[in-house]
Amino acid sequence: MDFVMNLFGNLNFEVIFQLTFVSLIMIAGPIVIFLLALRGGNM
């Protein structure tokens, strides 16, 4: 049990959240372009 608490204590959640949101933003760009192309260019 001490190992699990130590593992979560060493994780830097701020860095994990920042990387998660950056990856979501990077994924959202091509999705918006794909939707624009699918709808013929007019949102």
In summary, what is this structure?
The protein has 43 residues and is mostly helical. The protein has helices at 2-10, 13-38. The protein has 2 helices and no strands.
Coarse morphology: rod-shaped
Strand content: under 5%
Q: Quick one: how many beta strands?
A: 0
Low-confidence stretches: none
Helix percent band: over 70%
Structural class given helices, strands, pairing?
mainly alpha
Radius of gyration: 18 Å
**Biggest sheet, in brief?**
none
**Pattern of helices and strands:** HH
Overall pLDDT score: 84
**Gap between N and C termini, in Å?**
53 Å
Chart the SSEs and their pairings.
Blueprint: H1 2-10, H2 13-38
Structure description:
InterPro entries: PSII_Ycf12_core-subunit. Keywords: Membrane, Photosynthesis, Photosystem II, Thylakoid, Transmembrane, Transmembrane helix. A core subunit of photosystem II (PSII), probably helps stabilize the reaction center. It is a single-pass membrane protein. This is Photosystem II reaction center protein Psb30. This protein has 43 residues and is mainly α. It is built from two helices and no strands. The chain has helices spanning 2-10, 13-38. The longest helix has 26 residues, at 13-38. The mean pLDDT is 84.
